Amino acid sequence: MSLSYADVEAAAGRIDGIAHRTPVLTSRTADRLTGASLFFKAEPLQRAGAFKFRGACNAIAALSPEQRRRGVLAFSSGNHAQAIAYAGALQNVPTVIVMPHDAPAIKVAATRGYGAEIVSYDRYKEDREAVSRQLAEARGLSMIPPYDHPDVIAGQGTAVKELIEEVGPLDVLLVCLGGGGLLAGSCLAARALSPEVEIWGVEPEAGNDGQQSLAKGEVVRIPVPVSIADGALTTHLGQHTFPIIQREAAGIVTATDAQLVAAMRFFVERMKLVVEPTGCLAAAAAFEGAVPVAGKRVGVILSGGNVDPAALGRHLAA
Ligand SMILES: *Cc1c(COP(=O)(O)O)cnc(C)c1O
Fold first, then answer.
1. Which one of 57, 132, 168, 312 has the fewest beta carbons within 10 angstroms of its own beta carbon?
2. Ligand 1 centroid to 177 CA: how many Å?
3. Among the three residues 111, 129, 149, which one is the final residue of a domain in this structure?
4. Does the pLDDT at position 77 exceed 70?
5. Distance from residue 306's CA to the centre of ligand 1 (Å)
6. Shared-domain flag, residues 38 and 60
7. What is the DSSP pairing of strand 24-25 with strand 37-42?
8. Which residues have C-beta within 8 Å of that of residue 268, sequence separation ≥ 6?
9. Domain that holds residue 188
10. Closest-lying ligand 1 atom to the alpha carbon of residue 305
11. Where is the Tryptophan synthase beta chain-like PALP domain (predicted)?
């Protein structure tokens, strides 16, 4: 069964009243710097601090009563874990989270705080999918992956649905990209609500597997990238996300860590908004000219705001 905009609409109905309808922010300074009209969808202000709450909420809401009783398992470098833990707590569903041993402290603490059980693994030595699958089978848990799952993709698409409903049709849409759940969902929503829009994915320069995949016409796997964009350290796109991105996206561009820091500084100084490094990818593409935006109406997804205050300070002081 292939995903469509109807799935995004269904997700919007399920998460209504649970997920926040986040604000769309504008900045005259950002518009002056780029010559564009930029509309920033502020997912740092989403519950659990990132858009991932949307997909998590939708995926848990779609489970059967028996599946909910047994509980769910998620593997994640952070935001998906928090999202599943929180969405599970709100819906009285037990959660087990498989996290890398070096996940940011703020994300581990927040996840545990929502009542999830944490199981850690070594991201450079062990395969998180294999670790997770064994655990899920042994305990009868439903596995909800961070991006390659139809209900997750449909849930993530609700951010762009809200954005376009609020500001009207766009010329360009910029969306950050790890495994492509957010980008694929955004493609479904944007193509339905603003058919002419040009949709661009933005990923870390150090991990441009998405760009390589589009060039090659198939999913390319890379080693775990090293970047401050810890929400986008994925090694490959998904079997569900790639075909949608291949069909709908104009292309994928990249941003360097230095460009992400510059964007983080802009949001703190000018817009009083904490955006985590990964959350700055799409904005960096607009600010740095990786995608031409002058004279255009541009949607920019700020995907999350979960950054250790100490790490934020180090980035901004450097
Ligand atoms: C997970 C995440 C991403 C990447 O999302 P995908 O659906 O894996 O492409 C981007 N930004 C933040 C803040 C995230 O948590």
1. 168
2. 6
3. 149
4. no
5. 11
6. no
7. antiparallel
8. 274, 312, 316
9. 5-50+151-317
10. 13
11. 20-304
